Automatic annotation (TrEMBL):
The lineage of its organism: Bacteria, Bacillati, Actinomycetota, Actinomycetes, Micrococcales. SUPFAM superfamilies: Single hybrid motif. It comes from the Bacteria. The glycine cleavage system is composed of four proteins: P, T, L and H. Belongs to the GcvH family. CDD domains: GCS_H. This is Glycine cleavage system H protein. Binds 1 lipoyl cofactor covalently. GO terms for cellular component: cytosol; glycine cleavage complex. InterPro entries: 2-oxoA_DH_lipoyl-BS, Biotin_lipoyl, GCV_H, GCV_H/Fam206, GCV_H_sub, Single_hybrid_motif.
Length: 126
């Protein structure tokens, strides 16, 4: 089980885990719940660049289409092919098997939210 307090969050409902110069991120349980049943995930190609705060992918559900924003700037070093093949993993395990992208960070991460600030933003339970 992921320690949700150890993650950082964006106001756009992405979580991020940083280890060294690598950042892995995905959408939060709050976002997955609001999206509804995820049916399609479009992620950037490995080797492409992403810029913090800019759209880097798309998540489509039975309710709507949501944009995925990069929480950091850098090069995509891996994507979660399992989620591309079975998007329902995003709903089932957003913090575990439902991760989306790993980026090699090239610039310092912008200010991110801690768990308490994210819970306050969403009004969700911790």
């Amino acid at each position: 089980m992921t320690d949700l307090a150890a993650l950082s969050y964006t106001p756009e409902h992405e979580w991020i885990s940083v280890e060294g110069d690598l950042a892995r991120f995905g959408v939060t349980d709050f976002a997955a719940d609001k999206l509804g049943d995820v049916v399609f995930v479009d992620l950037p190609a490995v080797g492409s660049s992403v810029v913090a705060g800019e759209v880097c992918g798309e998540i489509e559900s039975t309710k709507s289409v949501g944009e995925l924003y990069a929480p950091v700037t850098g090069e995509v070093v891996s994507i979660n092919d399992a989620v591309v093949d079975d998007p329902s993993i995003v709903n089932a395990e957003p913090f575990e098997a439902g991760w989306l992208i790993t980026v090699r960070i090239s610039e310092p991460a912008p200010d991110l939210l801690d768990r308490d600030a994210y819970v306050e933003l969403t009004g969700a339970d911790a």
